[in-house]
Write the structure tokens for this entry.
Amino acid sequence: MVRFLLHRPIAVLITTIALMALGLVTFNQIPVSLLPDIAIPEITVQVSYPNASARELQKNLIKPLRNQLQQVNHLSDLEAETQDGLAVIKLRFDFGTNINLAYIETNEKIDGIMGQLPREIERPKVIKAGAGDIPVFNLNVTEKGQQNGSALPLSEFCENVLRRRIEQMKEVALVDMTGLSKPEVIIIPDRPKLQSLGITEQILTQALQKNNIELGNLLVKDGQYQYNIRFASTLKTQTDIENIYLKIGGIQKEGERVLQLKDLAKVSIQEQKLRGLYTFNGKRAICLSIIKQSDTQLLKLKKELNTQINHFKEDYPQLEFSITQDQTELLDLSINNLIGNILFGGLCTFVMIFFFMNDLKTPILIGIVIPVSLVITFLCFYLFHISINIVSLAGLVLGIGEIIDSAIIVIENIEQYREEGHPLDKACIDGTQEVIIPLFTSILTNSAVFLPLIFISGIAGALFFDQAIAVSLSLGISLLCSYTLIPVLYRLFYLKEERLKGFVPKKITWLMRQSERVYDSLLGLVFRQKILMLAFFIFLIIIAIPVFKNLEKRGMPIISRTELEAKIDWNEAITIEENNRRVNQIISQLAPNPHNNLMISAFVGQQQFLLNRELQQNFNESLLSIKVKTNQEFEQTKQQIKDLLKTQYPNALTSFGAAKNVFEALFNTSDAPLQARIVSNNKAEVPDIQTITEVSHRLHQQGFTTSLPAQQSRIYIQILSEKILYYNVDYERIVEVLKTIFNENNLGNLQAEQKYIPILLGSTAQPFDTLLQNATVLSNKGQILPLKELIHVTKQQDYKSFFSGKNGDFIPFDFYLASPQIPKAQNDIQKTIIKNPHLSVSFTGGYFRNIGFVKELGIIILVAIALLYFILAAQFESLVQPLIVMLTIAFGLTGAMVLLFLAGNSINIMSAIGMIVLIGILDNDSILKIDTMNRSKDSMSLIDAIKLSGKRRLKSQLMTFLTTILGLLPVLFSSGLGAELQKPLALSVIGGMCLGLFISLSFIPLIYWFIYRLKNHSP
């Protein structure tokens, strides 16, 4: 094959150029994303029942619905949170479940139970979760200057103009909105006048409903023509309502009178009662969350959106537009950092080659192979539908070292044949053929250790599938280039020299001379002190045990955040207006200087988003999203909010996390490490508030800091049955009066301008007690009675939210502890809780998920090592020699853990991936060195064969070491999510490579000598 290619160099070059051209063309068509496109195996069911309390909703709806949904196939976990009028049930499925089928089955289960639920309840909404549902931008729209008056005009403009213009962009799938004001018609009766006329609000209600009827159409034929006749009897304007006529009788029986509604009541259009609002930097705003099409590139969408926003600024100068939660910032920074690392590593590698090669042609030859391999790899990305993301690019960072290593090995072997006097063509053919089998085995073993990555369960397995494929592709292409392109280019580079003066041996460089001197000294020391060195090597293996025990175990590495989310539950029954006042107070103290460029978004109370499942808030809850510059500011702002709330609102409950992005959505990094779920042994009820308070107090005494579950006061109004019978008052009339005084008496809709505006019969805003004190009701005998005499009002304290899982209801306590403290803390917490014989406890949290990840990755590493052993046993036709490679890998893993420990990092998914990478790199060096020893020891003494193989492999081994280190070193000094994710991986590889190089130069020769010192033949 090589002979065939050598005599057709033009065809090889044209083919290479064609492949590179295709790679460059397809490069722009490869999707660019932060992480691979991963389907999140989660479905959310939202249940809305506005008139039900949390306890009633939990007992009467959520329990039967939860039992029904537990029958959905492949369900791994179920959690439900219930508040007044609203419940959210999260269904989590085994990874790999067809989420579309699960979505259909979930809907079928809900349809099956709808007959058992109250008739007036809306059908629960079923929402599929997905990384694509996370908004890529939040566009904030505010009015310039001070806002005085209604927010209705801005809301109507955003909904009818801005939203439609943005959704017309082909890159946009949906614009989700919150902060909108909705209009309503409020009719406030003149009660003294009504009483003087002897009529009630019910008369007004009946008159309005009679004048707001949709009569439909009639089809009338007139000869050969036919017409649709429409009866218009609907209310369309405020004037239509005011001009409604009523016929009433006077108190003195003076006959009937005809009055208009405006004579008896005041009619106005105003904002609906606030259930929530959105502010940006303290000003009321409208938030437009932009969700992209699944196949849209983020950076292209940002460019188009910026163009659109510039048009908005020109067309609507009275408005201000700003973008927050920009996912492209994270993407741009992370991708650019990794691309920069690849380029920097490649450049440093290219420069480094000059120090080992006393020749300009060889570095240039290797410099050609690197971009060729990378561009063809991108072509394979396109063909295999792999996106450019931080995971696949990290695979390329790791693959660069192997690309260079393969090229160096082939070039060195060709030159050794030339040194032996072989002609150029024969040297290229035989030199390439001799190492291609060991190289193929090396590439195979490298791919083999990555192959188990795709068998990791859950999202982590799907995430690192891209990395395994990226590394395998780069390795395969490097092998292909080494076998085809390098010998052809080498022949072209040296053909003229060969014809003019033949082969001229290259002078050894100063660096290589010093390296060989150090190698000879080290090898001499090892063989002079064999027993002492063996003891030292055993010590290195043993030290890994305490280091492993003391390393923190995590699922994902700790990453810096620059967008803080603070969820505040004021834990008091406050109004939206008071909620907003407190939020603005906190914001003003966080940002007293208007030039500090803090960007603060506040989601106050209930929000109007369709897809954002995290913002199902109550009236007395708020979410602050704060953009900062650095991770240090993130932590400072977090602590500042804690201190402000502790000082000014000690009852408030607060939780913190990072703003939602794809990474946070996939890995839930803000979850508490340990959550204790307290349940009552009487499964029918949750533990009462007094019991939970006592448990919390005992836990505080034990030193475990946690917050009591949020509580709220509920007002219960009981209609006194005996009194309404005695005074002859209808039950429905009392309910209607109560709805009216609380502005909840809906009489229909005003059909105006393609929208429906609710019509309410209400009263002027007054304190709760005043409303009840002044309210009256008309009996069937015409008596006007005070409402307070017919009802009984009580207040009770209850849980604000109810939680339930697959095994029933529970009360959650979150504990934020370091991983090493959790096992003991778990035992102590359990002992404290079960002192109450009526309680039991179970535990969950991020810690257990992390331990599961680490255990699974440990198994994957063992599988990779076992797979590697069998491949090596087949290649070497020996069961002993693969053990030498296995021992080398064990030392490399020790070096990886030691550097992780010294750097204050942890064992996590990324560092474990680095260890798998390390296995592939170390076995590569060991395979080629042992193969050289096997071929040399038949023609010379064992010790000479060992020394010769070490020197023959020294240059490529040192260059592989330095290229790998230089390729990863920039990651340690870079910022951004991409670099921080790869930092544990880089530490693992660098630590393992440093110790692995030392072991390869010292331990492998020694152990090989021990095994074969009494043999003088091939194993």
The longest strand covers residues 75-83. The mean pLDDT is 81. The chain has 31 helices and 32 strands. The radius of gyration is 37 Å.
